[in-house]
Amino acid sequence: MTSKRRLPRRLLTTALIVLMALPAGVGVAQEQRRTLFDMLFGNERRRPESSIIQMRPRPERVRPQGAARPAAPTPVKPPAAAPQPEAVEKMDSARKILVVGDFGAMGVGQGLETAFEQDPSVKVIAKGSVASGLVRQDHYDWLSELPRMLEQEKPQIVVVMLGANDRQSMQVGAERERFRTDIWLKEYEERVTRLAKMVTDRKIPLLWVGLAAFESPSLTADAVTLNGIYRSNVEEVGGEFVDIWDGFVDESGQFIVTGSDVNGQPARLRGTDGVSFTDAGKRKLAFYVEKLAKRHLGDLSVGDLIRLDAGDLPLLSSLPPEVEAKMPSQPINLSDPELDGGKELLGASTIKPVARETPQNLLLTKGFLPDAPVGRIDNVRLNPTSP
């Protein structure tokens, strides 16, 4: 009986211990689950204070007393651009290149000014109207203005570039003719010829610059037609047509915005409108004209700065006495074909010519050859004499 009574008491004690331990174990698991959840989703409010890392401020380094403050790093300066040479002052007798036309001509003038800015003997004069042409004579009449410019400036070369604004109807007599009709083309050719003859009749070299390709296909097609008129009519009256087409198209003949500049480097040549030219494009326009202009101006691009005649040679009387006494004669001019009258070297009159028969002449005239020199392999004498 005693053992049966003790058994339920032991069971009751064991159950009581389990019940007392159960809430504590569940609380620990819940606390662990809450901590993992907080770690995953960053809920700092439920994290225990022991799990939060406190960031302490970094202590400042104390420099010893008397120690020098470290020098600040020297800032690296970007490489300075190469200074552009200043334009030289032009001579009073500088030869003039007159550039006339529309906005394209103004670009050619700007490029030529850059090309000849270091040459004091060449002056570029650009005159014109941006929106001018040969159609709208009511806006700007080149047939009336060009003769006045020629008389005023008296240029050595005239450069013309226009036509980009001429794609419009033209007043012919009392009628208004549409662009590219037969009457329009005939009248336009006559105006081109008249303008060109104003220059060539004065015996002035004329360089007529053709049109470049445009971004618009229709504009490009019209430019080809106008270039054909310029080439045929200008060359017929003695002018020279400057073809710039290949410089502003690709290998397939299509319009390009970016291409090679005068130095062969890639550069943007045309404006965003597909018509105008950038600074690099203007310089490239002038490059085609520059070569021909230098040919007409001559090889010496500095004009009369260097003289090769006898006027630059020093006179003997202007030399010091000690130098004059040592001079055998006056300086001679190397450009004189007679070398200032001297045909012989100094002392040539004292040299007496020595008559000497050549082996060939001896063989032909006397029938024998002279003896071979002593020591040569064909000298077969038994007792050679010493020379």
Automatic annotation (TrEMBL):
User: What GO molecular function terms would the record report?
Assistant: hydrolase activity, acting on ester bonds
Q: Where is the composition biased (Pro residues)?
A: 72-82
Q: Which domain of life is it from?
A: Bacteria
Stored Pfam families: DUF459 (PF04311)
Q: Which InterPro entries match?
A: DUF459, SGNH_hydro_sf
Q: Which Gene3D superfamilies match?
A: SGNH hydrolase
Annotated region (Disordered), positions in chain: 48-88
This chain's protein is named DUF459 domain-containing protein
Origin species, per record, is Rhizobium rhizoryzae
